[in-house]
Amino acid sequence: MPLTLYNTLTKTREKFIPLKDKTVGLYTCGPTVYNYMHIGNLRSFLFEDILKRTLLFNGYKVKHVMNITDVGHLTSDADVGEDKMLQGARRENKTVWQIADFYTKAFQQDSKKMNLLPANKICKATAHIKEQIAMIKILEKKGYTYVSGGNVYFNTSKANDYGKLTRLNFNVDSQARVEKDDNKKNMHDFVVWFTKSKFQEQEMKWNSPWGFGYPGWHIECSAMATKYLGKQFDIHCGGIDHIPVHHTNEIAQSEAANGTKPWVKYWLHNEFLVLSGGEKMAKSKENFLTLSAFEQKGYNPLDFRYFCLGTHYRKQLMFSDEALEGAKAARKRVVETFLELQKTGKNDLQKQKKYLQHFTDDINDDLNTPKALAVVWDVLKDDLLNDKDKYSLLLKFDTVLGLNLHKVKKEKLIIPKDVKQLAEQRLLARNNKNWKKADQLREKIKELGFIIGDTKEGYEITKNRDFQ
Ligand code: AMP
Ligand code: ZN
């Protein structure tokens, strides 16, 4: 099956045909670095990783650009509230620059642990102020902007197809998200350059033709994507929350400035990771879980990867401890079975063909990872397939699934005596409800290179990232 993707712009599944030969331009909206990434954000980056790996699997070259938002993303996606970076700075009593640096590194560490392929170009908004000003100047020259109340606005009434990315109930959907602002000419107009903050204390400011200030959030993606991928490119991604405001505004200003329609051929969006009860995980709420929290509990980051692969990216993914535990057990079984395979003997390509076809059909069917995972199990369970064929097939599949199978090593876990003793002491402390002592012992065990997790039977000791 040829690669088929659901395009939010046309609201249909479409056969993927790149704009130019075999090189695909891919832009993914990156993190706002004012806090750790929560596992919902990581779901989004994982979906983009699967997309990129699937393109590579299909023989395309991919030029992947991702931004780091380190200025201008206000506490609402529209123009309301203060800069999220400032919130982070106040919370931790640091400068916004220190916050950006710290959380960018934390994001990169999480990405590595999740085995996400790095983007070819990672670009910070604050390092591209010149490009953003240049784009606003073009918009101004073409008559798409106006200055009001000290800020520069994009005039959405000048873009005759404004809002084409959203669904038909666009007005209802986005009305709640737009700010009542007497300086605006039209309800959906948005700021491209602020000289007059709508809040105090914005630390990051630059000179511009419109005065000392800072860019609106959306202009960074338009300016950087255009700079690195050109005036038209193939695919742009993000979470569904970006459809009504951020991506809608990116399209309006990019098409206006570049004069190219469509600016991007395929728009892909992932659904949310939610908590039981359907609540969206968000950095602004106190409900967010991080990858490090999972590691503390004895999970490998790839357990979370496996967990996400079990649900299609356009479906909501409900998080629960039990479901993650199930993913952990399943990944462990895949790894253990893979390690038992004998690598000697000959490949029988004819026998492999059927499974390769199934896998390709599933992953090319709008990135159907749950079905692709099922093929992994079909291969492992097929008694008529020899070990060498199973081994080769799994390695091929893993170029897409990214479970790092080529790196796993057979290693017998030897638990030193002192670690065992500490684990027993910790169990005793837990039985006595002495949580403080139990936590201290967990830290001591960690310092010795092991992770202790709690089970119904008592505890389980694993090596820190034993399967990587
Ligand atoms: P941010 O760092 O807030 O700019 O978000 C990074 C990415 O995570 C964006 O593509 C968001 O759309 C996406 N995202 C935010 N919350 C969730 C969630 N609960 N589930 C899945 N994706 C999310
Ligand atoms: Zn963006």
Please tell me about this protein's structure.
Helix content is 43%, strand content 15%. The chain is of the alpha/beta class. It has three domains: 267 residues, Rossmann fold (3-Layer(aba) Sandwich); 125 residues, Isoleucyl-tRNA Synthetase, Domain 1 (Orthogonal Bundle); 47 residues. The strands form five sheets. Strands 5-4-3-10-11 form a five-stranded parallel sheet, sandwiched between helices. The chain has a four-stranded antiparallel sheet with strand order 6-7-8-9. The radius of gyration is 25 Å and the shape is globular. It starts with a strand and ends in a 5-residue tail after the last strand. The structure holds adenosine monophosphate and zinc ion (ZN).
Mean pLDDT: 90
CATH architecture descriptor text of the largest domain: 3-Layer(aba) Sandwich
Distance between the termini: 32 Å
Provide the CATH topology of the largest domain: Rossmann fold
Structural class: alpha/beta
Count of helical segments? 15
Residues in helices, as a percent range: 40-55%
Q: Uncertain spans, ≥5 residues at pLDDT below 50? A: none
List keywords for this structure.
468 residues; alpha/beta; Isoleucyl-tRNA Synthetase, Domain 1; 3 domains; 5-stranded parallel sheet; 4-stranded antiparallel sheet; 15 helices; 15% strand; binds adenosine monophosphate; binds zinc ion
Summarize the structure.
It contains 15 helices and 15 strands.
Write the topology of this structure.
Layout: E1 4-7, E2 12-15, E3 23-28, H1 39-57, E4 61-68, H2 84-92, H3 96-113, E5 121-124, H4 129-141, E6 145-148, E7 151-154, H5 170-175, E8 190-194, E9 214-215, H6 217-229, E10 233-239, H7 243-258, E11 264-270, E12 273-275, H8 291-296, H9 301-309, E13 317-319, H10 321-340, H11 349-364, H12 369-381, H13 387-401, H14 417-431, H15 435-447, E14 450-454, E15 459-463
Parallel strand pairs: 3-4, 3-10, 4-5, 10-11, 12-13
Antiparallel strand pairs: 1-2, 6-7, 7-8, 8-9, 14-15
Bound molecules: adenosine monophosphate and zinc ion.
